[in-house]
Design brief:
149 residues; alpha+beta; six-stranded mixed beta sheet; 3 helices
Length: 149
């Protein structure tokens, strides 16, 4: 996992309600961290590339796949960096990758992936991502695969 491929990051601190009796961060909490990271990524992209109508308007995005691998546990009050990138864009969907780094040790303690689909608000059917989305992500990311087959 190449950290250099990840330009976007957010910070999280493991909170009391996120841990079990042993002080270990529950595995499901990582999906909340990934969602926080995706929302921050989208907000930052909307500001940087000014394509609010791509994310808001007659369409919306829905998560259709989420996965995570855990390498080491996080504990109460650990400070974490969640690295995020879009690594694949297709016709109506795109894929995120995430890394979770424990700040104190600088070790990757978890990774995740997810797929988001662009949906028409009225028909509830997948619709083509706009060209401005491809252009913005391609110019922002270090490396992104575009597959319009």
């Amino acid at each position: 996992m190449e950290l250099s491929k990840f330009k976007h990051h957010i910070k999280e601190k493991v909170k009391f309600h996120e841990v079990d009796m042993l002080g270990v961060c529950n595995n499901a909490v990582y999906f909340n961290y990934f969602e926080d990271a995706r929302v921050a990524y989208a907000n930052d992209m909307m500001k940087k590339y000014r394509f609010k109508d791509t994310f808001v308007g007659n369409s919306f995005f829905i998560m259709v796949h989420n996965e995570s691998d855990y390498y080491e546990s996080a504990h109460l009050d650990d400070e974490l960096t969640i690295l995020t990138r879009v690594n694949l864009i297709k016709n109506t969907s795109f894929a995120f990758e995430h890394l979770v780094v424990k700040d104190k040790s600088e070790k990757i303690i978890a990774s995740g992936k997810g797929v988001v689909v662009h949906i028409n608000r009225e028909t509830k059917q997948p619709i083509q991502l706009p060209q401005e989305f491809y252009d913005a992500v391609s110019s922002y990311e270090v490396e992104v695969k575009v597959d319009r087959k």
